[in-house]
Design goal:
Largest sheet of chain A: 5 strands, parallel
Oligomer: homodimer
Strand order of the largest sheet of chain A: 2-3-1-4-5
Number of strands of chain A: 5
CATH superfamily of chain A: P-loop containing nucleotide triphosphate hydrolases
Structural class of chain A: alpha/beta
CATH architecture of chain A: 3-Layer(aba) Sandwich
Helix content of chain A: 40-55%
Radius of gyration of chain A: 16 Å
Order of helices and strands of chain A: EHEHHEHEHHEH
Distance between the termini of chain A: 12 Å
Number of helices of chain A: 7
CATH class of chain A: Alpha Beta
Number of domains of chain A: 1
Chain lengths: 176, 176
């Protein structure tokens, strides 16, 4: 029997959240685990297009996602969510509202994320063209006790994926 | 094996949508069908508290609900949703985006709904204290081909509930 859960990837822009989340999803789908992925673009289009990047708007953004994740996870669906989600208090709210919250801190130093700068966002943030940019002009509150910590400056993507799958299998005892 | 579906109750304020929806939910839970109910208060609190009653806001309201209903229904959860949802085009959008949309037109004449006026809203709408009130100052576009039509001025609540359950069993072939 399936168990619902929420894999919550949090970390700076460029830390590797989405890349790892996509690969974890692939692995779980191979094992016929029912999965829904909640990521930036789809959520923004359908749920939160009215919201900006102030703390208030970021919190409301995460709250709407938490509501969806709550309904799905209690119906035995596995959720893969990747959002910067920089604030500890709101991550705590998600943890308290969903079934089986598994916090995954995708940890890479700011310098590394900024050097990668895949989408050119850090450059724009440094130039002041983007405001409220996490790590530059907005805080990122590190998870204190994440279920999983992935150090993407030291481990390869595949190693990180294995670490997540290992957790689901051994600690969470998902039938993989 | 469960099938996902969306029971979408549409109709005027006071038509009996929520009362029937609540009772249908009870009956399905008795049969261990996985059900999530999406109704006004919970959705407004968690998903749409920024929205008002203009056509644009009503449409955005229904679109967010449709997104949630899509994710749940394709994961074999039965959804019970009751919203006035007065516009044909947006109900069509919901139909096209979710798995197994079952439109239930809760049909009672405006005079009957207004005479019931359980929450005193019609009185306020007539006095101009509430604007954009469906049936009074805003249109209600009747469903043209609903899967189920319930005439709550002619049938009792329990008869309506039976009609919905009968549909799910005989037409939709849910294992009840």
């Amino acid at each position: 029997m399936n168990k619902g859960f929420v894999l919550w990837f949090t970390g700076l822009s460029g830390s590797g959240k989405s890349t790892i989340a996509d690969r974890v999803k692939e692995e779980l789908l191979k094992k016929n685990i029912p999965i829904e992925q909640l990521d930036g673009d789809e959520v923004r289009e359908h749920l939160t297009r009215d919201l900006g990047f102030s703390k208030e708007d970021r919190d409301e953004n995460i709250r709407r996602i938490a509501f969806v994740a709550k309904l799905l996870s209690r119906n035995k669906v596995g959720i893969i969510a990747s959002f910067i989600s920089p604030y500890e208090d709101i991550r705590k709210e998600v943890r308290d509202s969903v079934t089986n919250f598994i916090e995954i801190y995708v940890n890479a130093p700011l310098e590394v994320c900024e050097a990668r700068d895949v989408k050119g966002l850090y450059k724009k943030a440094r130039a002041g063209e983007i405001k409220n940019f996490t790590g530059i002009s907005d805080p990122y509150e590190e998870p204190k006790n994440p279920e999983i910590e992935l150090k993407t400056d030291k481990s390869s993507i595949e190693e990180c994926v294995k670490q997540v799958i290992h957790y689901l299998k051994e600690v969470y005892q998902l039938d993989l």
